[in-house]
Amino acid sequence: MRAALAEIVASPEFRASQKCRSFLIYVVEETLAGRHESLKERVIGAEVFGRAPGFETAGDSIVRVKATEVRKRLAKFYQDQPAGGLRIELPTGSYVPVFHGQAPVAAAEVDVAAPRRMSRRVMAGAAGGGLAAALGGWTFWPKSRALDALWAPLLTGPGQLVVCASGAPAVSAVDLSVVEALRRPHAPGATIRLDQLSLSRQAQTSWPTVQALVDVTRMLAVAGKPFQVRVAAEMSFDQVNGQPLVVIGMFSNPWTIELTRHLRFSFEIAGAGEYVVKDSQRPDFVRRVKGLHPVSAMPVDYAQVTRLLDPRRNRRVIAIGGISGLGTQVAADFATSEHGWEQVAQMAPAGWEQRNVQVLLETRIIGDTPSPPTILAVHAW
């Protein structure tokens, strides 16, 4: 059955969607392990897509949407397959897969490593490099040449890779009225005293950014690259000199702003609640966003994926970030997407694989859910 699963997730129907692959691998492995009763929407949302435990499923349809997409991709995969052999079906209205048919060869004759369960609890151990070891048997590294070309300088070079996650001390308030005043500081009569606030030194970040972190670290673990996760507020460039680096977050991560502010595509804060995207080569190109998720509704978000290769400083960096956490989530999904980077390869100039590259993305936001991004521009130098 795992051999059949490996064939499915390596097929063109599934190579274009990492989320669909992760969904199918998870539900099949849980069923084979006898844990089919736990395959509920909230559990899958938390374990596969990084949602908060007990998240509100009525307002977040990620599991239902991906289940429908998996069913369509399975149907397309089996359209041209000969009759017989093992088949995997995901019945409508259920997240428990059903297996049909007979294995054509003995399991011992199939040289395919079994995928292993990767829960959020395993993800929590990523900072010590435990995730890569825990997933040592998972061999579904994407076959996309373009995606390989993006990540190869960081994955094949020497040194442990460092993932720099956004995060900073958080301010909390003693009651809801203070929280409302913080959200609308110019409201009439709103006053805030320092004794109403407390400062936590524990690093904080948003759920969309956590999902971005999960996407990136899952891919690194699959690739077998040793890595550690560090918080931006507790790092300096000297500490990671010479080590490959992945930076996640935009305005929530000062490293991203510092690394990208002199590049062609830059993100800036224009004023109270207004954010601007600029193109240094096109003064007429300006994109503005007012408000910031989750405090304000955002109809659109912008993000970028940037790779910097500087042999003089022995620096190999991929920076991933959007204006809000939703943009960062979209950028991380794109940076680990085979389909997305095949598009980039078609738009980029020849030889981009060995050069610095910047990709500017736009995503429409519906409620709390970002849509698949549009590539606005690709720049290589």
- Helix content range of the residues, please? 25-40%
Spatial shape = globular
Number of strands: 15
Helix and strand pattern? HHHHHEEHHHEEHEHEEHEEEEEHHEEE
Q: What value does the Rg take, in angstroms?
A: 22 Å
Counted by DSSP, the helix tally is: 13
Described by strand count, sense and barrel closure, the largest sheet is: 8 strands, mixed
**Distance between the terminal alpha carbons, to the nearest Å?**
46 Å
Structural class: alpha+beta
Strand content: 15-25%
Number of domains: 3
Mean model confidence by pLDDT: 78
Low-pLDDT residue intervals, each spanning 5 or more residues: 104-143
Summarize the structure.
With 381 residues, this protein is of the alpha+beta class.
Helices, strands, pairings?
Layout: H1 2-9, H2 12-15, H3 18-32, H4 41-49, H5 62-79, E1 87-89, E2 98-100, H6 120-123, H7 130-134, H8 145-155, E3 161-165, E4 168-173, H9 176-183, E5 197-204, H10 207-223, E6 227-231, E7 245-248, H11 254-260, E8 265-271, E9 274-279, E10 286-290, E11 300-310, E12 315-322, H12 325-335, H13 338-347, E13 357-366, E14 369-370, E15 374-380
Parallel strand pairs: 3-6, 3-7, 7-12
Antiparallel strand pairs: 1-2, 4-5, 8-9, 9-10, 11-12, 11-13, 13-14, 13-15
Helix pairs in contact: 3-5, 8-13, 10-12
